[in-house]
Specification:
The complex is a heterodimer of chains A (529) and B (388). Chain A is of the alpha/beta class. Helix content of chain A is 35%, strand content 19%. In chain A, helix 1 runs parallel beside helix 11. Chain A is globular, with a radius of gyration of 22 Å. The radius of gyration of chain B is 21 Å and the shape is globular. Classes of the chains: A alpha/beta (529), B alpha+beta (388). The A-B interface holds A 102, 104-105, 107-108, 115-120, 122-123, 126, 129-130, 168 and B 5, 7-8, 101-105, 107, 119, 230-231, 233, 235.
């Protein structure tokens, strides 16, 4: 086992695979090591029940960077995302709100709750689209190092500054509001109807242990608005074959460029000698060596488990320990005997072909957060459900369906300690099904299989520390040049020759691919490989 | 036969595969067009006129009862949001039409005014009866004194047992009326007008025919010839009333209204752009076709894609762009509406217009002309104008 690689990547999540593809495309000898039998990390498709293929964790695609698709020829390797047309909000009183891609259709729906909101809605989308232009400046480049006097870093900072300046004064001020306000306060600037604000505000809390009234959550709202599909702003879609389809396309691209990928090859430790990473030790004792080691794992796992505290400076150690993971969500995957029927809009229809939100009021969402604050899961949680089989029938046998439910809040740190989550797993699953059944009366009879993933499970199976789906919260203090920690934001770590390419690095979050891409490009540019 | 979405409704483009019979109905007899998807608002109360004057670039307080004003409204920077008509139905009652939803925008200025603003878009239907025989047809269905109803006047009347409002307005540049009726009676009104029109060669008409007539009449269209300032993604897409041939609707020297300061400044400093009519040289175009051994080909349909317009001397210098155009069957001219840099807006200026003949691009000359290409006498003629 003395075969020498240019780079070994620990973890075959979509970012690791993209990083591998870029390095391999540049002619480097790359090895990806994945501990599980499937590739994709959290963007993974698995046949959990015979005939049913689930997007086990991450379930929709929007933020994936269009240039990565082009540069890695992902369409050729099977990348296919089908856009969603509707955001559906069933209400307990039998009413409902569906927001469509067609602006007139949305206007008519929203007008039933507020005429003014209905007309302001496109203006809001326009503003968010304009703000989304920042995405290119923010997401598509490494974060500038503001403490550095290196001309390159200063140029980088100026470029970012220019992007903000180019917004014009009105949008610039709005942007200041966006990064300081809560999601709900920000929406209050525009809208009056709670029915509209509730489902919109949840974009501000997804994956963070915050409430819709917590300052700073407006930024997460924008993060979700920055999504692009085929270069078109603000649309979400289903990956053909589940989100694992994206990962598999990345893997096939990587292999086509010559990368080597091994599954069921868990890494035990990074070999560090004299402050330098030289290789990895597998769980089975094998040692593999490479010029550079790249970790697709979250910062916590990378520094504390793969490297080990003994190799870290005290300052770095302090920062890593401060890094907020605090998983706040779980996942419930259901296999259904037939299409779920909503009480408020019975029958199969386009309204259930997009995402379905259980977020009937802002008060409901606040109450859900209240329970989480005190270490309990929400008994009436916010749920974002999708039925991908209505769009991609290959995922289940004919007539059968999959309902994939993202659930918040499910705090990692429950009162009795995270390790006690398995005791509450089924109760949590019941709470989710009970909540859904209030809107879908016949749901319970349709369930033929159920998988409940608590944050604890996400940590155990996928290695997401504390079950955080973004490998660390997208809160302002750990973004840009502070992601994951100040001083080590440029995909480098405090260990020489050890890099990070996961969602825990800038820009992080969602099936975006940017972290993997930027890590590879940074390495190539600095001639590290 | 052909449909499209208009403000969230299915609207007819043409009732037959070709729209030209409907076009000729507008110009020679009468066409009946459903304009219900327009947005409609009722403004009532003691301050209704003051409130609308605050919003519109036109001074609505000066609008007499029974009269209609065509105007536009602007944002704070004097950029046009939308255009429409304001009808004064009573001292304290107005009816406003708009192309985009305007309830939220109008509502912003309600404070301090004793007015009630009601969105009646979904409650009131609109029918446009347009064409030279429209007056004679309308006389059959109601007893309004139509011979005395002037251009841009409005009145209330009855058809059978229900009430309608008539306004002598339209989007065809011909003699014509728009009829406003409660939804409940809309179908009965349609039938009554169609029955009455039988001897006057009436035809149901769609938006394709309308599009040809409105270009001939030089009437601009939002989202085609200009953008709503509230929806424009970049500032360059916003226009002032002066830039879109609506300068004549601006009444600057009066109480405050939206965009006043910016419009005053622009009036002084001059505008950057102007919408002009283009009379596109037909022999030159014909020549280009003949050179390829083809007879000249023109679509019967009005077009609305952006086409570059160049300076006459330097054919590489783009000085503007045409936004809509058509072959005018009645004028026998190839015409377009174009936005050009202000210094090229003088009537008679020669410009170059891009054409594609058999896959190859060329330019032909085009002469700047009035936007109102077609303006027949019967459009504004009133047989027996009353003294008021």
């Amino acid at each position: 086992m003395s075969k020498k690689y240019d780079a070994i990547i620990i973890g075959g999540g979509h970012n690791g695979l993209i990083c591998a593809a870029y390095l391999a495309k540049a002619g480097r000898k790359v090895l990806v090591l994945e501990k599980r039998h499937v590739l994709g990390g959290a963007a993974v498709s698995e046949e959990l029940y015979p005939g049913f293929t689930f997007s086990v964790a991450s379930y929709v695609v929007s933020l994936f960077r269009p240039h990565i698709i082009r540069e890695l020829e992902l369409a050729k390797h099977g990348y296919e995302v089908i856009p969603m047309d509707c955001s559906f909000l069933p209400l307990p009183d039998g009413d409902s709100l569906a927001r469509w891609a067609d602006p007139h259709r949305s206007r008519k729906e929203i007008a039933r709750f507020s005429k003014k909101d209905a007309e302001i809605y496109p203006e809001f989308s326009r503003i968010m689209t304009l703000m989304g232009k920042l995405a290119k400046a923010v997401i598509d480049h490494p974060a500038p190092d503001i403490t550095s006097f290196n001309p390159k870093e200063i140029a980088n900072l100026l470029r970012l500054g220019k992007a903000f300046k180019d917004l014009g004064p009105d949008l610039f001020h709005l942007n200041v509001k966006l990064v300081t306000m809560s999601a709900l306060d920000f929406l209050d600037l525009w809208f009056e109807s709670d029915v509209l604000k509730a489902p919109m505000s949840v974009s501000g809390i997804i994956g963070t242990f915050q409430g819709i009234r917590s300052p700073g959550t407006a930024y997460v709202l924008l993060h979700h608005y920055m999504g692009q599909l085929d270069g078109v702003f603000r649309s979400w879609g289903f990956s053909k074959g589940g989100t694992g389809g994206v990962s598999m396309a990345c893997a096939r691209a990587a292999m086509s460029y010559g990368a080597e990928i091994r599954t069921e090859a868990p890494v035990k430790q990074v070999i560090v000698k004299n402050g330098e990473a030289t290789g990895v030790v597998l769980e089975n004792g094998d040692e593999l060596y490479a010029k550079q080691i790249i970790s697709n794992l979250d910062p916590n796992r990378t520094y504390l488990k793969m490297v080990g505290e003994q190799h870290l400076d005290s300052e770095v150690l302090k920062e890593v320990k401060r890094y907020k993971l605090r998983g706040s969500s779980g996942k419930v995957n259901l296999a259904l005997d037939s299409v779920p029927e909503f009480k408020c809009r019975p029958g199969d229809g386009d309204h259930i072909r997009g995402d379905i939100a259980i977020a009937p009021s802002t008060e409901y969402l606040e109450k859900a957060y209240d329970q989480a604050k005190y270490g309990e899961f929400s008994t009436r949680p916010y749920i974002n459900a999708v039925i991908p089989t209505l769009t991609d029938p290959t995922l289940a046998p004919p007539g059968k369906h999959i309902m994939s439910c993202f659930v918040q809040y499910a705090p990692y740190h429950i009162k009795e300690g995270a390790e006690n989550w398995p005791k509450y797993r089924e109760a949590f699953g019941d709470a989710v099904v009970d909540t859904l059944a209030e809107y879908i009366p016949g749901l319970k009879d349709k369930i033929i299989f159920r998988q409940v993933l608590t944050p604890w499970d996400l940590e155990q199976t996928m290695g997401l520390t504390e079950g955080n789906i973004f490998q660390g919260e997208l809160s302002l203090e750990q973004l840009l040049f502070q992601r994951p920690i100040a001083g080590y934001s440029g995909y480098k770590t405090s260990i020489h020759r050890l890099w990070m390419c996961g969602s825990g690095t800038h820009p992080g979050g969602g099936i975006m691919g940017a972290s993997g891409e930027l890590c590879a490009k940074t390495m190539l540019k600095s001639r590290a490989v | 036969m052909k449909w499209k979405i208009w403000a969230g409704y299915y609207a007819v483009c043409s009732y037959e595969t070709l729209h030209d019979a409907e076009y000729y109905a507008f110009r020679n007899s009468a066409g009946l067009l459903d304009v219900s998807p327009l947005f409609k608002y009722r403004v009532t109360g003691p301050d209704a006129a003051a409130f609308l004057s605050r919003i519109m670039v036109r001074n609505i307080e000066k609008l007499a009862v029974g009269r209609v004003a065509y105007c536009c409204w602007c944002d704070d920077h004097g950029k046009v949001i939308d255009d429409g008509t304001v009808m004064r139905r009573g001292e304290q009652e107005f009816f406003v039409t708009a192309a985009d939803p305007a309830f939220s925008w109008f509502s912003r200025f309600l404070r301090g005014y004793r007015v009630e603003l009601t969105d009646i878009s979904d409650q009131v239907a609109g029918l446009a009866l347009q064409g030279p025989t429209s007056r004679d047809i309308l006389k059959q269905v109601c007893d309004a004194d139509l011979d005395a109803l002037k251009y841009f006047a409005t009145c209330k009347t009855r058809v059978d047992n229900f009430e309608i409002y008539i306004s002598r307005t339209g989007y065809t540049g011909d003699l014509g009326y728009e009829l406003w009726v409660d939804n409940a009676h809309a179908l009965k009104l349609w039938d009554a007008v169609m029955d009455a029109g039988r001897n006057y060669d009436i035809r149901p008409a769609g938006l394709d025919a309308l599009d040809v007539t409105r270009v001939e009449a030089g009437l601009i269209l939002k989202d085609v010839d200009y953008y709503n300032a509230l929806h424009a993604l970049i500032d360059d897409r916003k226009s002032s009333p002066y830039e879109i041939s609506l300068g004549w609707t601006v009444d600057l020297d009066r109480g405050p209204f939206n965009g006043q300061a910016a419009l005053k400044a622009e009036k002084q400093q001059g505008s950057k752009w102007a919408i002009v009519g283009l009379d596109i040289n037909w022999p030159q175009l014909e020549e280009l076709y003949y050179k390829r051994g083809l007879p000249p080909v023109l679509s019967l349909q009005a077009w609305r894609s952006s086409i570059p317009v160049y300076a006459s001397k330097d054919k590489r210098k783009q000085v503007g762009y045409a936004t809509s155009g058509t072959w005018s069957p009645i004028l026998k001219k190839n015409i377009a509406l174009a936005t050009v840099q202000k210094q090229y807006d003088k009537i008679g200026t020669e410009l170059q217009f891009e054409v594609t003949v058999e896959h190859v691009r060329h330019t032909v000359s085009a002469i700047v002309s009035k936007t109102q290409f077609y303006n027949p006498e019967h459009k504004t003629f009133t047989p027996k104008p009353s003294r008021s």
